[in-house]
């Protein structure tokens, strides 16, 4: 993406729309004069989880949030280079032919079809001939991490499945520019290695990786040496090569080959079947190897750039356990990770890249904020009038708070009494994490809340851990951490003083029995303490989300505990809620006790009977 001779207002201003689409997690983001105005995933509007389709709804939202018409855009930027992607797909087919014909047809149809006609789709949707630009995938990831970060000088590490040819990129950001230094290319991919184990353990690729990470602490890394010896050759600088004999993604819809199954003691686990000790140990093993590689890559990019700051993006940057290991390794003074690190964040990175590189817009100073991401609260908000109008149409019964302080105190009392609260206030989060705008909240001191939330509210696997939100000023009293973690992207150990001794399980209960382990009380806040005494922490300060900060303060005043369970406001297989209608529907379909939407509170026991016009679970993709 080259710089123009004369574009933008004096080379200082531009309004740019970024788009990602056609793989998974389509999104749109709008950047004006270097400031992030809006960003959202298409799934939140379409209600199709990981929706890859052209993000019409997200684009319309971004334009509305900015109060502009399409003709006011200086450019629209796509997060990927379709020509380079097609080159990879074609070369891949030629390398494996005559095998892989079905995969060739599927992939080529995407690139030659939808991606090839990105420009015409943009013009059709916008109804205006706006300049269309293309960004290299990993450069878009790098831009999404570097430009919103608080650093002028930073090492940049982007790791994912694949983008065009690159799967891993090392770069240096300084003085508002990004210099690409090194890359690892397809088919050698750390993201695809992890996804292969996700697939083999019976979870869905591109969404089940969180489950594999959550499963890992229940196992032992007894397969780690097999992975190192047979699957991936890792060098001291973190560069690596996969042994492609064990993988199926080159020429089939399968991620793994028969040789993979032989190496790891049998066929892949069937989805929804019982999780055995083998899957736990496989998860622990690949997690261990991934952490080793990420640490080596981090050390190498630090030595190469000399920078004491690191920024990260790409799907692998959502592995909060690996991120926590990097943070505690002492390689960097500070680390900043793009909250929407996956493909959705590519839309934001593409828009930022065009703004700062093509249009020469300088990075904005943010003296009153920790970064330029605005807490990642970049999605739509709904006024009190809109909320009440919907509730009245639905004949819902609700009460209205007179002030934010009254809301915080009341909700804190409900939580302290053991109630589960659906909480929707302000602008929706951009990225996969709920950060207090579209959250389900609960008391972390309850030993029963993890299994109750998983089985009765979220309708998901019982082993999956929940994250704590904690007052930033009190975080170090509860967790072994020195820096804020506002985006829930670091797993950190619980303080020793907060832990409780756990008796060893009887020998007969150990194999294949996660329930017994889950039900052990390990700390003062068992609902957010994982089996290895770790937690994926969100620290909450007073600036970006004052209402959530006030709620945590009120809960501490009520209980002495400045921590809450914070999980995303959705059911398994469903996107996080966006609108009041989404929130009310999720509330009525689950055992959530209390619903808060802006200044309105609803008690489940007072609501009219709920009926479904169809089997709603069929509408969502369970994985």
Q: SSE layout and pairings?
A:
Layout (H helix, E strand, L loop, with lengths): L14 E6 L6 E6 L2 E7 L1 H4 L9 H11 L8 E4 L3 H15 L4 H12 L5 H9 L5 E3 L2 H10 L6 E11 L2 E9 L2 E9 L4 H11 L8 H7 L8 H8 E3 L5 E3 L15 H6 L13 H29 L3 E5 L6 H9 L5 E4 L5 H16 L25 H10 L5 E2 L3 H13 L4 E4 L13 E5 L6 H9 L9 E5 L3 H4 L11 E4 L20 H5 L15 E7 L5 H14 L3 E6 L11 H10 L4 E4 L2 E4 L20
Parallel strand pairs: 1-4, 4-5, 6-11, 11-12, 14-20, 16-18
Antiparallel strand pairs: 1-2, 2-3, 6-7, 7-8, 9-10, 13-21, 14-15, 15-19, 16-19, 17-18, 20-21
Helix pairs in contact: 3-4, 6-13, 7-11, 9-11, 11-12, 15-19
CATH architecture of the largest domain: Alpha-Beta Complex
Instruction: Count every beta strand, where a strand is a DSSP E run of 2 or more residues.
Output: 21
Give a quick account of the main beta sheet: strands, pairing sense, barrel closure: 9 strands, mixed
- Supply the CATH superfamily name of the largest domain: Carbamoyltransferase, C-terminal domain
Percentage of residues in strands: 15-25%
Number of domains: 3
- Name the structural class: alpha/beta
- How much helical structure, as a percent, in the residues? 25-40%
Mean pLDDT over the full residue set: 90
- Strand order in space, largest sheet: 13-21-20-14-15-19-16-18-17
In CATH, the topology of the largest domain is named DHBP synthase
What distance separates the N and C termini?
A: 38 Å
Question: What is the approximate shape?
Answer: globular
CATH class of the largest domain: Alpha Beta
User: How large is the count of helical segments?
Assistant: 20
């Amino acid at each position: 993406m080259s710089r123009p001779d004369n574009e933008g207002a004096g080379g200082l201003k531009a309004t740019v729309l970024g788009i990602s689409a056609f793989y998974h997690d389509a999104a749109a983001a709008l950047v004006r004069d270097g400031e992030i105005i809006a960003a959202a995933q298409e799934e939140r509007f379409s209600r199709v989880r990981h929706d890859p389709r052209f993000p019409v709804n997200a684009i319309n939202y971004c334009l509305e949030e900015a109060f502009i018409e399409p003709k006011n855009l200086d450019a629209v930027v796509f997060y990927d280079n379709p020509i380079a992607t097609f080159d990879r797909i074609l070369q891949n087919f030629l390398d494996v032919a005559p095998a892989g014909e079905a995969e060739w047809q599927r992939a080529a149809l995407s690139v030659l079809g939808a991606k090839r006609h990105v420009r015409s789709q943009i013009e059709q949707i916008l109804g205006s001939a706006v300049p269309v630009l293309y960004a290299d995938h990993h450069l878009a990831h790098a831009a999404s991490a570097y430009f919103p970060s608080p650093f002028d000088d930073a090492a940049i590490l982007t790791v994912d499945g694949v983008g065009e040819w690159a799967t891993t990129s090392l770069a240096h950001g300084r003085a508002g520019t990004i210099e690409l230094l090194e890359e690892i290319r397809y088919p050698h991919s750390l993201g695809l290695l992890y996804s292969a184990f996700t697939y083999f353990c019976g979870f869905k690729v591109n969404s089940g990786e969180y489950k594999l990470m959550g499963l890992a602490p229940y196992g032992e890394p007894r397969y780690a040496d097999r992975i190192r010896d047979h699957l991936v050759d890792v060098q001291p600088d973190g560069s690596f090569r996969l042994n492609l004999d064990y993988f199926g993604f080159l020429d089939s819809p399968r991620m793994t080959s028969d040789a993979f199954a032989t190496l790891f003691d049998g066929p892949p686990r069937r989805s929804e079947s019982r999780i055995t000790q083998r899957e736990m140990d496989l998860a622990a093993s690949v997690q261990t190897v991934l952490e080793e590689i990420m640490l080596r890559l981090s050390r190498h990019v630090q030595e190469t750039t000399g920078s004491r700051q690191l920024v990260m993006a790409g799907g692998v940057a959502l592995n909060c356990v690996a991120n926590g290991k990097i943070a505690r390794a002492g390689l960097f003074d500070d680390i900043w990770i793009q909250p929407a690190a996956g493909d959705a964040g590519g839309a934001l990175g593409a828009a930022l890249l065009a703004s700062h590189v093509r249009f020469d817009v300088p990075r904005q100073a943010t003296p009153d904020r920790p970064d330029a991401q605005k807490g990642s609260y970049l999605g739509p908000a709904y006024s009190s009038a809109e909320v009440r109008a919907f509730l009245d149409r639905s004949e819902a019964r609700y009460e209205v708070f007179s002030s934010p302080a009254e809301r915080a105190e009341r909700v804190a009392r409900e939580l302290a009494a053991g109630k589960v609260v659906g909480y929707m206030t302000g602008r929706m989060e951009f990225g996969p994490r709920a950060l207090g705008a579209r959250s389900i909240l609960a008391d972390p001191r309850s030993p029963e809340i993890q299994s109750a939330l998983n089985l009765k509210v979220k309708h998901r696997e019982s082993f999956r851990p929940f994250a704590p939100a904690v007052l930033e000023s009190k975080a170090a009293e509860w967790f072994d951490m020195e820096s804020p973690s506002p985006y829930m992207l670091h797993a950190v150990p619980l303080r020793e003083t907060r832990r409780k001794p756990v008796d060893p399980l009887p020998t007969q209960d150990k194999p294949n029995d996660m329930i017994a382990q889950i039900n052990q009380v390990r700390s003062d806040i068992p609902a957010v303490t994982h089996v290895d005494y770790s937690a994926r922490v969100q620290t909450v300060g007073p600036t970006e989300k004052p209402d959530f900060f006030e709620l945590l303060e009120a809960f501490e005043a009520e209980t002495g505990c400045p921590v809450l369970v914070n999980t995303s406001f959705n059911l398994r297989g469903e996107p996080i809620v966006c609108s009041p209608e989404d929130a009310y529907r999720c509330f009525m379909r689950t055992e959530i006790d209390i619903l808060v939407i802006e200044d309105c509170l609803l008690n489940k026991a007072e609501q009219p009977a709920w009926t479904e016009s169809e089997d709603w679970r069929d509408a969502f993709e369970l994985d």
